[in-house]
Amino acid sequence: MNLERLPNEEKLSLCRKYYLGGFAFLPFLWLVNVVWFFREAFVKPAYTEQLQIKTYVKRSALGLLLWVAVLTTWITIFQHFRAEWGEVGDYLSFTIPLGIP
């Protein structure tokens, strides 16, 4: 999508939709929001909607970092303790590895 062709009001609306969509357990939308709107928020000359776009981009980045931290922590804990959890660890696994861990 070429953001240069959109009016500033539509940019703000799109940025807001991606920001709110991230709360539906879709942190990828926050990543897209940060990547697409970073230049609009921090590089382009000032315009009226820019302050709100900056807020959405900053909050999207913060939400994305929080998701990455939580997911990384869970993956690390799960990989480390899955075998010790016994049957519960097996039920949480998509595939059950064979052999002794």
From TrEMBL:
State whether keyword Transmembrane applies: yes
What InterPro entries has UniProt attached to this entry? Gamma_Secretase_Asp_P_PEN2
Annotated membrane topology is: Multi-pass membrane protein
Any single biological process term in GO: Notch signaling pathway
Renumbered to this chain, the signal peptide range is none
* Location of this chain's protein in the cell: Golgi apparatus, Golgi stack membrane
Q: Where does the protein principally reside? A: Golgi
| Homology family | Belongs to the PEN-2 family.
Q: What is this protein called?
A: Gamma-secretase subunit PEN-2
UniProt organism field: Lates calcarifer (Barramundi)
State the encoding gene: PSENEN
